[in-house]
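Lab notebook, bench 4. Still working through the backlog of constructs that have no structural model yet. Next entry is a single chain of 98 residues. Request: give me the structure tokens for it.
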Amino acid sequence: MQQTLKDFDVIEKELDGISRPGDRGRGGVWEKTPAQSFEDYPKLYDVVAQRNRKWLPRNRNFLRDNDNYLVVVGVGHLTGKDSLVGMLRQKGYKVEQL
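Model written out:
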């Protein structure tokens, strides 16, 4: 909660730029914002990273069959080396933004 309140001004300014269709595919924008948000809250970062480690096996199971799945998570779970995307890449999966 404190993080959200502290970062509210930054989030408000960046949301407009992040959500425009022309900004899709610019991973740098997405990677910068969550990483900066966690800098002052290392314990929160650890909680998110631990959650990603817990989710990883289930998400890998989704990739083992021919069914389609939708996994919805916040952007903080999608960028950086301890993200779901980062962990899947470390396991050899090719992950692409659509």
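Notes after review: The chain has four helices and no strands. The helical segments are 2-19, 27-39, 42-62, 84-90. Flag for follow-up if needed.
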